[in-house]
Specification:
CATH superfamily of the largest domain: Protein of unknown function DUF2961
Distance between the termini: 25 Å
Number of strands: 51
CATH architecture of the largest domain: Sandwich
CATH topology of the largest domain: Jelly Rolls
Oligomer: single chain
Helix content: under 10%
Structural class: mainly beta
Strand content: 35-45%
CATH class of the largest domain: Mainly Beta
Radius of gyration: 25 Å
Number of domains: 4
Number of helices: 10
């Protein structure tokens, strides 16, 4: 399916995509620029998709050089590899600490493309109003540079690849960054085929115009032809809110609908009080509300205090906070589906009544089965006194709204990281764990990087479509009221959303090594259904005699089982001599040849997620995977499933010249974190209807030294444990 660009065609294509979901299982996945064009399908389940966030984080769990300049390996002194992926996928986001790493090499399917920033040539005299180059390929608002973000270069241009993607840095003075990409099972139903980025085609102008809009601007005007075609229904009213009371704003019942807009307004003199109200939204009569959060934080800011005369506090794609006509106006256009009912409430615990509160809701009929979507959630957590050494847990779906297995996708955060004007908390890294993985599928470099900034945004405020620092002062002395000391940030994920099949755990360091005791408040946005689409159907423990026998393990070149005492990558081992993350022991093998084993599946599977626990001391582990169906005692023909590749190792290159144009150099950094979980998707055509498969893994070494001239390390495929997760249809 190829999506055209005329506004009516976009609406019609969106309708077609929704209708197709009725007959197709699973739903079509918007890919590349379609993920923007079809933003109203934000709620749709993503089956057969995995997302990963990689970065230059300190591999030893600390905050060395503020998580900058830790590279996987070097191709040359000016070619530092920070991301290397094999298999088909799309790079959806890249964040760089402005020109420090420029130029960057985007190697797409083996073809090298040079990407720069206009300050590259003379970084000691940066160019005001700098842009990405080639500018036609990286236009605003898909990209933003340090001139607008106060310290970071941000890129939201989708970069598709069919076989591989590798990113390298030119210079490494403070080369910090993080990158989000998605990969797909070979048979996943995509809105368009993956075609390698050609470094020649400019982004669709219609998408650029779309991203210039915010909140209510994204929806058809009331009473317009487009609104009529979409069957857009509008409700509005005024409320007086008594103190201590929960007031029902509006309720829906009877038919499946999609809440397209939720809007409020309040008199400007009541803005701060209104921001402290609690918003609660309950879908389909659930026992607990799925949205339960302070109003200001839900709409993307820590407070509704207007510190200056700017028109917008938040001007993001799905959220907007605007001051106009003597009122504060709040809008949310995250699509929110429900099957039978919705109940929207405001809870006033401010201590005084609030009058003249305006509200508007806009809905359309839900087209397609509710099972193909997730309910919208905004989970609030108050962290008044973080525990030293422990990440803040912003969300754990296993302990949310009754717990159980949840499938869906993580789509962002809004957080207060200080109530006291303290920017030092911003060294804390976000870490995201999905579906019981012990290695984070997402690992960042700091809180302000997550919020689209660099260098703490220079203490300045910023609001962009998907990231921002809307409130808070540069320094405490600048504060004119207590509200000025509230520092907050937001990050929304659309193209770069992160799916999960049974559990999501969203964590955040508080300070560079979890040492800050500052008061945090967080809202985590996610879509989910209380039904897992991943089910663990088998676990094979390599090196365990009984497990090897049950799974028919065969590997003629494998080593004898050996014991490893180590850790996963979770943070610092100790703080002030207190052990935070103790080591544990496990047993596995290494091989330089072929391994075979049998795994049990759910025959109703729509593909399989394989997860491997491994010893990460062996670098750049690469293998060709093939799969055969097992029927009774008969093993069928092996068919290729793709390349399983994990870049890097627990040893990395640390390269950070003291001067912007200083001579390149490198040191080795070896962490004591040898355990790692890694994932591989098996396409539906290889596994559907099969209760058992035979997997063959053939080691194909990548013979690349850590840097030119360095001895080639021992290369091997490490196997400690394999888990088979059957991918199931949502219901």
């Amino acid at each position: 399916m190829t999506i055209r660009n005329h506004p009516f065609c976009l609406w019609a294509a969106s309708l077609l995509l929704a209708v197709s979901a009725i007959a197709a299982d699973p739903a079509v996945i918007p890919v590349g620029l379609d993920a923007y064009r079809l933003w109203d399908h934000w709620a749709d389940q993503r089956i057969g998709v995995r997302a990963y966030m990689r970065s230059t984080y300190d591999r030893a769990g600390g905050n060395e050089r503020a998580d900058a300049s830790h590279f996987l390996y070097q191709l040359a002194d000016d070619r530092n590899v920070t991301l290397h992926v094999e298999g088909g996928g799309v790079l959806y986001f890249a964040r760089y600490n402005h020109w420090h790493g420029s130029p960057w090499h985007y190697e797409v399917d083996g073809t090298d493309h040079l990407v720069q920033e206009t300050s590259t040539a003379d970084p000691k005299h940066p160019v005001p109003g700098s842009v990405f180059q080639p500018a036609t390929l990286f236009p605003n608002p898909l990209t933003w540079t340090w001139s607008q973000t106060h310290g970071a270069d941000l890129m939201w241009v989708p970069i598709p690849f069919e076989h591989s993607f590798r990113m390298t840095y030119g210079r490494t003075c403070y080369g910090t960054g993080y990158y989000i990409y998605q990969q797909f099972a070979g048979s996943a139903p995509l809105s368009q085929p993956l075609r390698a980025w050609d470094a020649a085609t400019s982004p669709d102008p219609a998408v650029l115009e779309l991203l210039k809009k915010s909140g209510p601007e994204l929806l058809p005007m009331p009473d317009s032809k487009e609104a009529e075609q979409a069957q857009l229904e509008t409700r509005r009213g005024q409320l007086d809110l008594a103190t201590g009371a929960a007031t029902v704003v509006t309720e829906y019942s009877g038919t499946a609908r999609l809440l397209r807009a939720l809007q409020f307004s309040a008199p400007l003199n009541e803005a701060v009080s209104f921001g402290g109200l609690r918003l609660r939204v309950t879908w389909d009569g659930a026992a607990e509300p799925s949205i339960d959060a302070p109003v200001a934080l839900f709409f993307g800011a820590g407070t509704l205090h207007r510190r200056d005369d700017r028109e917008y506090l938040v001007k993001a794609f799905p959220m907007q906070i605007r001051y106009a006509d003597g009122r504060v106006q709040l809008s949310c256009v995250f699509p929110m589906p429900f099957a039978k009912s919705a109940r929207i409430e405001l809870v006033n615990s401010t201590g005084h009544a609030l009058n003249d509160i305006g509200w508007t809701t806009r809905t359309t009929p839900l087209i397609g089965p509710i099972e193909q979507t997730g309910y919208f959630h905004a989970t609030y957590r108050d962290h008044p006194q973080p525990v030293v050494g422990e990440d803040l847990v912003l969300l754990d779906t296993a302990a949310t709204e009754g717990g159980g297995g949840w499938s869906g996708h993580f789509v962002g955060t809004s957080l207060i990281f200080s109530h006291d004007g303290n920017l030092g908390t911003l060294e804390g890294d976000p870490r995201f764990f999905f579906d019981d993985s012990q290695t984070p599928q997402g690992q960042g470099t700091g809180t302000e990087e997550w919020g689209g900034g660099g260098d703490y945004w220079g203490g300045l405020n910023m609001t962009l479509p998907f990231a921002g620092h809307p409130c808070g002062v540069r320094k405490v002395a600048d504060a004119k009221s207590p509200e000025d000391l509230i520092e907050s940030a937001y990050r929304f994920l659309l193209t770069d959303l992160m799916p999960f099949g049974k559990r999501a755990v969203i964590r955040l360091e508080h300070g560079g090594e979890n040492q800050s005791v500052e008061h945090y408040e967080t809202v985590t946005y996610w879509y989910g259904r209380n039904h897992a689409t991943l089910r663990l159907t088998d676990t094979f423990k390599v090196g365990d005699t009984a497990s090897e026998s049950v799974h028919g393990y065969y590997s003629p070149t494998a080593s004898a089982p050996y014991s490893i005492e180590s850790r996963y990558e979770w943070g610092p081992d100790t703080i002030k001599e207190k052990i935070i993350y103790p080591p544990h022991t496990d047993t596995g093998r290494k091989t330089t040849g072929t391994s075979e084993f049998t795994l049990k599946l759910d025959p109703a599977n729509l593909g399989v997620l394989l997860r491997r626990k491994l010893d990460y001391q062996f670098p750049n582990q690469r293998a060709e995977v093939s799969v055969a169906r097992v029927t009774g005692n008969q093993t069928g023909e092996f068919k290729p499933a793709g390349v399983w590749f994990l870049a890097g190792s627990n040893t990395c290159i640390f390269s950070t010249p003291a001067d912007e144009l200083g001579a390149p150099w490198h040191e080795l950094r070896v962490s004591n974190r040898r355990f790692r979980d890694d994932e591989f998707l098996l396409q539906r055509a290889l596994t559907e209807g099969c209760g058992e498969i035979r997997v063959r893994v053939r080691f194909t070494p990548m013979e690349t030294p850590l840097f030119p001239g360095h001895p080639l390390p021992e290369l091997a495929w490490s196997e400690i444990r394999y888990d088979a997760y059957s991918i199931l249809a949502p219901r």
